[in-house]
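DM from R.C. (forwarded with permission)

"hey, sorry to bug you on a friday — could you get me a structure for this? deadline for the figure draft is monday and I only need the backbone to look sensible"
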Amino acid sequence: MGITGRTGLLILFALALGSCSEPGRPPKQPRNLILISIDTLCADHLGAYGYERPTSPTMDAIAAAGLLFEDVSTPSPWTLPSHASMLTGLYPNRHGVKSHAQRLPERVKTIAEIFKAQGYDTAGFVNSHNLSTRYGLDRGFGYFDYIKEDAGQTKPSLVGTRAMQWLKKGKEKPFFLFLHYYDVHSDYTSHPQYEDKFTHPYSGKADGTTSQLVSVRQGKTALDQTDARHLIDLYDAGIRQMDDGIKQLVQFLKDNQIYDNSLLVITSDHGEEFLEHGGVLHGRTHYQEVMQIPWIMHGPSIPAGHRVRQMASLVDLMPTLLGLMGIAAPDGLDGMDLRPAWQQPGVTMDRQFIFAEADHNNTVDGKMVIDIKRAVRHPQFKLLYDRATKDVQMFDLTQDPNETNNILAREQPMAEIMRTRLANFMEVQETGPSLSPLSDEEIQKLKNLGYLGN
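My reply, with the result:
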């Protein structure tokens, strides 16, 4: 989790990307907003977050020429509720979308609806059923393109290509563009040149397919640490291929005089497990390997080479981006506008705790259940609670970032404070409108993607 060097390389990349403002002049407001969500991207597998492997030279360079949040948590460990939080600034217990049976309520405004009301062109290009029109996350997009994913496809996806085609038509008005890439998600597949760069000699059974990883979850297949290492190799290769896709998009933005007057934001919905706590995939737990996500920004008004240590949540994304674009955020959001964290040095943001919930694909007594696990974060501590088993764990993330030592017994006073705050937080339980049952095709698609089990 630590932050390491490579300073000289990043400075060269930063110079290549260009500065966001001239010295002595007030920063100008971005004209456009481009929000990129890379599904299943672990923050600590990027060079900008301290990873030693060359998975992300383009994203590292964007971070070096812009701003990076060091400690960002997702409010849910799987795609649908996490993206609903990303696009609304609300926790899952407030926006009400925690399963495939729920749709975003009409009363909840999305960031796209807000931009559209301000006269922006709005477009979304997504690559997952979890963001399809079924769940209401397309609201506010004047143009919305759901590019159906295919488990086992050779990636990268068509998301970037379709978005660039949309941009080529020319935009007289400022725009908000949302791109959701599924490329890093399992199956862990990438072109041979990327796998050759990252994989070690291996003769085991791990193949990186979602079907096998689901089998591991079900106890039908056993993997060891050598297998996990191979899975990480395949996963890292996919990140590098994704990074090259971002490089192509950035070059297009520069070639078309879009880059310098746009706010570019890169984040994720959740990370991925590789047996750190015995599991694979994501959705079931709130450990850091799943909860810590990247948040990188570049553009007008963004200081170059700045790192924010303030604890942040994905629910903060919407109010912060609206603030940067000069648009008032709706009342009643759970998220905070984090601009003071870098615009006002020395200012401490008024927040002690952030929360996580809305797990998926867990089982109790042989039945699949959702939303049984909870987490509450403090800048130093994290407390995990399972309402099915009543199990409680507590970790000191400053001393034990890998969450190996449960300190609940020795930190009872702080644990009680955190349990009380968590209980108060969970008193509000909103539920989105119920949807019609999934079709057989949708059920099979979700199974292929690692959801719904059997």
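R.C.: lifesaver. The radius of gyration is 21 Å.
me: no worries. The chain has two domains: 31-343, 354-448.
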